[in-house]
Each structure stands twice: as C-alpha cells, then as structure tokens.
Amino acid sequence: MTTRESFLQRVRQAVVEGNRIVGEASLPDRGRIGYQGAGPDPVESFCRACRTAGGVPLVVDDGAAAWQHIQQVLDERRAQRIAVGAGGLVAALGLTALLRQRGCEVTPMDQAPGSDFRDRMFAADVGISNVAYLVAETGSIIMATAPSEPRSLTLLPPVHIALARRSQILADLFDLFEIFARKIAFHQEAPPSCLTIITGPSKTGDIELKLVTGVHGPGEVYVVICPDGIAAAATAPTAKR
C-alpha cells in the first residue's frame, strides 16, 4: 500500500468512527435529489436531526417551562456568568431580570459595551441567544449577526442556549437561502454582516483525524423550542447564594 493509499484509508476510517460517535444512522443517499424537506412534522424532524448532530432540543409549552429548562442547564453547569442576547424570546421571557434575580452576573447585548466587554464574553459560562431560523432537515441553528446577537455570543461561551419559536423552523436550507434572497431582492432588509449556520456543538477532526468536540466553539448546544404565543415566566426564582 502506497503512502497516498494509506492516508486515504485512515481518512475513511476516521469518517466511519466519527459517524459512530453520533450514535444514529446517517442521512440516506440523496442521489440526484437536492431537496429532502422536513417531513410531516418539522418540530420532530428538527429534534431528531439536532440530536444526531450532538445538540439537545427541548420543546416547551410555555414560558415557565422554558425558564425551568434554562435553570436546569445553569444548575448542572454551576453557571454564574451569563451572556444574553436582546429582543425576541429573550425579552419575551424576561430572561435578563430573571437571571439577575437568580444571582447571576449578566452581560446583556443591548447595553453599551464597556472596556471589559471582551473579557466578560470570554469568561461567560453560558451564552443565551435568539435565532433567525432553525432548519429541520439538518437540525441547524441560523444566526444573523447583529448588535443584539453578535457572533461572540454563540462562539465564546462553552455552553450555548438558543431560543426559537416553532414558526421559525424551516424545512430545508433551500428555504433559508430563498428567504434571504427574496428579502434582499425586494429591499425588505439589508443582508446581515454574517450568516452563521450552527449544527450541533463545535467539532474538529484536524488533529490526527480524531473527532473532538468544543475546540473552536461551544461544546454543548441546547435549543429551546417555544410556542409562537409564549408569555414570560410568571414566577421569579429565589436568588442563589
């Protein structure tokens, strides 16, 4: 066996082993079909694909359940320093106030950044963000960079909690690019400076072709899927000491 053949064999083996780590079967061969869609239930399809990619989807019925799941993640990680986005579900759930009442050190994105903003983002235990969309077929989170949702919010903290409404779930990446192309073509809004597609925790196979999680970004990704008419959590927690 030549050096080239030996190298390609190691690549093939690493791919097989990496797929086994995920724990579920890979998608069927597309052949000439580029669009697969999300099936009859986009929420179920997203959750299945998200788990396959290593993420943790959490479907809730109201604001209280969403806050309960968020607290559980914080408790399990003993998280105290939280970076949090602005607007959207973050505002609807009143998360900034709830987190502060809990006793957390909160860095909200809707406040003017101080001189220590960069250090606070690197030191954050958890980042909580809104999303632009979710993609059911691939279990992906779509982030459109904005002052209230900077890339650092989903890139620097080791744990990322994304909040989405059910109506934000798209069937396929084809739908995503069609939406942005239409908005730009009709001058409905300027394109974001960066459109990020996050599929599960950060992974890399650069080192010895071994799949490693959490090197270039969060090692844990949670997606809280809320109903469209969600209201804020009614009960504030007791501050942790």
Q: TL;DR of this structure?
A:
This protein is of the alpha/beta class. The protein has eight helices and twelve strands.
What does this structure look like?
The protein has 241 residues and is α/β, with parallel strands linked by helices. The chain has helices spanning 3-22, 42-52, 63-77, 88-92, 95-102, 117-123, 151-155, 173-185, and strands at 56-59, 81-84, 105-108, 126-130, 133-135, 140-144, 159-165, 169-170, 195-198, 203-204, 212-213, 220-226. The strands form 3 sheets. The protein has a 6-stranded parallel beta sheet, sandwiched between helices. A hairpin with a 7-residue loop joins β10 (203-204) and β11 (212-213). The longest helix has 20 residues, at 3-22. The model is unreliable at 19-28 and 234-241 (pLDDT under 50).
